[in-house]
Amino acid sequence: MAGFDRLQVLLSAAMGTVLVSYAMLVPAAAFVMATGGGGVSLDAAFAAAIPVWLAAHQIPLSLGGQPLSVLPLLPTGLVVVVASLGAGWAVKRLGCRFRADAGAVLASIAGAHAAVAVLGSALLPRAAAVDAAPWAAMVGGGLVAGVGAVIGVLRRCAVPADLLARIPSWVRPGLHAAAVVLLGLLLSGAVAVTVALAVGAPAVAAAYGGLAPGFWSGAGATLLALGYLPNAIVAGTSWVLGPGLAVGTGTTSIFATFPPAAPSSFPLLALLPSVTPPAWTLAVLLAPVGTGVLAGRVCRRVPSVTGRVPAAAVAVAVTALVIGLLCVLSGGRLAAGAFDPVSVPAGLAMASVLLLVGVPALLVAGVTRRGEPDEAEWADDTPTDAGDGDDPVVDVPRPRTVAELVAERERQAAEAAEAEAAAASEPVEVADVAEEAEDADEPVEPEEPPAEAAEQETDGNVVQFDRRRRRT
After folding, report:
1. Model pTM?
2. Which of 97-111, 170-184, 205-219 has the lowest mean pLDDT?
3. What is the pLDDT of residues 377-418, one digit of tens each?
4. Are residues 109 and 181 in the same domain?
5. Which of 370, 395, 424 finishes a domain?
6. Is the pLDDT of residue 133 over 80?
7. Is 378 part of any domain?
8. Could you tell me which residues come within 8 angstroms of residue 300 by beta carbon, excluding any fewer than 6 positions away?
9. N or C: which terminus of the chain carries fewer CB neighbours within 10 A?
10. Which range marks the domain in which residue 95 is found?
11. How confident is the model at residue 157 (pLDDT cuts 50, 70, 90)?
């Protein structure tokens, strides 16, 4: 592709992802403004979408001088998806060359979002009293869009074989096990939030009655709550793991609950329990233990016995890091109010993952069953060099599973038994045995020397060779 065409594709992907992600948030901002009771215009909707776009990139804001860093994760997920689709389209148009195209696509999309975020932080309307630090806008915009671009490039471009050869074979199963664990933990958190909604339905209804008594105002509050629903799921995951969460002066976990001074009028915060959970709620700790066992079983699919424990360690480490990151993004400052700050303890959640998920995963992955082959049986098939005159070495593939190894040993035992049976049933000829015995008893006549060797030269004299002396 020519240089100008390549530049056109990169610019289209960079600015296209910015415009599409911004355009997707304009209707949501206009709907919230309209349901809030005030009038809405096209200019006001576009202006209100700027801080929403910045919040979607996890850029901390300031409302009237008060910090606001508890930002919704649902718009962030939409931005990541848009950046991923744009990066995949761009790298496909450029030819899907990993070394030549991946870096350019990643830099263009991440750089465009970072630059527009800095520009948007300077264009925030003063009437809205919303502010954002330029350096935070640059970092947040580049990182969120960069994550989406990396996902899109990896989905479209195949990683070169020489780079894959440098990665140990147990890393990929470890990442697969980490994905399974994360899915199981987040699903457990979603179940916990659903149960809390069912149990705390009266409190949620009371919150709606105080915050948004009308239909349209209730619809706007529901849209805002849906934006924070991923945050609630992460908080539910922390509750399942044990650390729980803290809102203002109140804390809640499976071990104890200290409610805040006053109930919140926001529907999701109204789900916080006001009494200590019963003792049977400790059974929710079986969910992370079960995901650890499942991760260990996934890691047992690694052919090499010595590679299973490292695969489980990779799964646990990746899971702990992702859970810690989600906990950090789910909490933050809440405008210095009665429910500030919202804290989902990342350190305790990571420690709980290492304990409740890591120990079962390592135990299941590291235990070797009886009859399982040693590491020598799983060695790589490396043919040895044949010396000069030796027969060429045939590279016979070794079995890769226990079943194949057992079948190979049974086949070799059957072949050995057949060879022994054939050797035992073969008839021995008596004449051949007698002939071999006669050959063994017959004296060996010395060979006659050649004619040229009949003379020996000694000190220049020729001595005649005496045959009779030799016979005596």
Report:
1. 0.77
2. 205-219
3. 444 444 444 444 444 444 455 555 666 777 787 888 888 888
4. no
5. 370
6. yes
7. no
8. 308, 364, 365
9. C
10. 1-166
11. confident
Q: Per DSSP, what are the bridge partners of residue 247? A: 250, 342
Distance CA 454, CA 472 (A): 17
Q: What is residue 126's predicted lDDT score, i.e. its pLDDT? A: 66
Q: Are residues 63 and 199 in the same domain?
A: no
3-state helix/strand/coil string of the chain: CCHHHHHHHHHHHHHHHHHHHHHHHHHHHHHHHHHCCCCCCHHHHHHHHHHHHHHHCCCCEEECCEEECCCCCHHHHHHHHHHHHHHHHHHHHHCCCHHHHHHHHHHHHHHHHHHHHHHHHHCCCHHHCEEECHHHHHHHHHHHHHHHHHHHHHHHCCCCHHHHHCCCCCHHHHHHHHHHHHHHHHHHHHHHHHHHHHHCHHHHHHHHHHHCCCHHHHHHHHHHHHHCHHHHHHHHHHHHHCCCEEECCEEECCCCEECCCCCCCCCCHHHCCCCCCCHHHHHHHHHHHHHHHHHHHHHCCCCCHHHHHHHHHHHHHHHHHHHHHHHHHHCECECCCCCCCEECCHHHHHHHHHHHHHHHHHHHHHCCCCCCCCHHHHCCCCCCCCCCCCCCCCCCCCCCCHHHHHHHHHHHHHHHHHHHHHHHHCCCCHHHHHHHHHHHHCCCCCCCCCHHHHEEEECCEEEECCHHHHHC
Say what the pLDDT of residue 399 is: 58
**d(C-alpha 191, C-alpha 161), whole Å:** 41
Helix 42-56 crosses helix 134-156 at what angle (to 10 degrees)?
70
Of 32, 247, 267, which is closest to residue 128 (Cα–Cα)?
32
Task: Tell whether 102 and 138 lie within a shared domain.
Answer: yes
Copy the structure tokens of residue 57. 């990139």
pLDDT at 462: 47
